[in-house]
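Materials and Methods. Structural model of V-type proton ATPase subunit G. The 104-residue sequence of V-type proton ATPase subunit G from Paralvinella palmiformis was retrieved and submitted for structure prediction as follows.
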Amino acid sequence: QYRLVSFLTGKARRLRQAKEEAQAEVEAYKRERERQYRENEAKILGSKGDMEKKIAISTQAKIEELNHSVAANKEKAVKRLLSLVCNIKPELHENYTASLVVAR
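The predicted structure was written out as tokens:
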């Protein structure tokens, strides 16, 4: 009976030790995966910051180009609008002339 008890306690000890070793392996694997994740996250977020800078520079260049275009064509556009607005040709509305024909 003593051998059985000592066998069971030895087996329980080995099982406990195996469980602890497995837990340690799991923790080590988890730490490694978290480290890899943080590295990848830093790469992605770093490139995201670079893309934001490139987009901001590109946007600023386009805004400056549009401002230059507005400055160059503003006078021409205002003259065109004024010529269209001031070029008035008074005419009778088509419905008004039709009502004159019907009334006769």
